[in-house]
Design the sequence.
């Protein structure tokens, strides 16, 4: 029997941005919807697995309605991989959404990432959890939450293969929307802008690739978010470093476009953001 959910009129959506492990880049988010559904986006690296499990227990009643994976890099899928390798009995994941990657191309164009990507995909397939292969253009409706997929899947990429095949998700929740860019890079961004730039406007945006390397700034001009989510450790944002300069330049650009709030996982730690509707 399918789970039953109900709208709770006085309950907000809640978004948690998970902290980065010290010295590591990672991306992890949890969303509790007003109807009781819970979503995880990526989850961060393996060091975040225990924190993530405890939050799923405490905030989500031990059940994840849908787990959305952008791509199988350790900083994004490490926690999920660790959890699937030793699945606790009190945790349920009802469905995993991810963009299938071509492991032969990973081996050819990004060989250093091939062992982890293969392990991640093997554990997902062997978990027995239902999965959905997402494609650009997909619309996913989960209760009152609508998710659009703008990027992801195999492409003609020879550099930054897994980053460029990142699934990009836009969560639409009543009057609020969040755009999760994953680690999308310049090549994939060009295609995304050609197809979906009129749909990129959002209230919140997750900074692509931890702010380490910029994607096309045009994507932020079309998104014009009020809030920016940075899944980045403190040490790569320091002034005087290349990443720190990119962080400052991108932050200045966003503020010129009207962004008024920034949440940085490596500085602010665990952030809890309430989204009223």
Sequence:
């Amino acid at each position: 029997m399918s789970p039953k959910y109900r709208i709770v009129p006085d309950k907000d959506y809640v978004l948690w941005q998970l902290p980065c492990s010290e010295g590591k880049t990672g991306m992890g988010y949890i969303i509790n919807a007003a109807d009781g559904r819970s979503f995880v986006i990526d989850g961060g690296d393996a060091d975040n697995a225990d924190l993530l499990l405890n939050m799923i227990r405490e905030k989500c009643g031990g059940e994840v309605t849908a787990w959305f994976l952008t791509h199988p890099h350790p900083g994004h899928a490490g926690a999920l991989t660790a959890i699937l390798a030793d699945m606790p009995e009190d945790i349920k994941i009802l469905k995993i959404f991810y963009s299938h990657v071509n492991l032969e191309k990973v081996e050819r164009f990004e060989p250093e990432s091939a062992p982890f990507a293969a392990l991640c995909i093997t554990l997902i397939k062997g978990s027995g959890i239902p999965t959905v292969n997402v494609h650009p253009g997909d619309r996913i409706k989960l209760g009152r939450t609508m998710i659009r997929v703008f990027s992801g899947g195999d492409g003609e990429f020879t550099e930054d293969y897994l980053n460029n095949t990142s699934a990009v998700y836009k969560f639409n929740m009543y009057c609020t929307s969040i755009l999760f860019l994953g680690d999308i890079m310049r090549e994939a961004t060009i295609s995304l802008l050609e197809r979906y730039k009129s749909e990129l406007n959002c209230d919140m945006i997750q900074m692509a690739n931890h702010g380490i390397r910029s994607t096309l700034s045009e994507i932020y001009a079309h998104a014009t978010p009020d809030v920016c989510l940075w899944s980045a450790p403190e040490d790569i944002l320091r002034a005087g470093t290349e990443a720190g300069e990119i962080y400052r330049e991108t932050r200045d650009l966003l503020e010129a476009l009207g962004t008024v709030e920034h949440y940085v996982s490596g500085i602010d730690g665990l952030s809890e953001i309430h989204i009223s509707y």
About this structure: Residues 242-256 form the longest helix (15 residues). Confidence is low (pLDDT under 50) at residues 1-10.
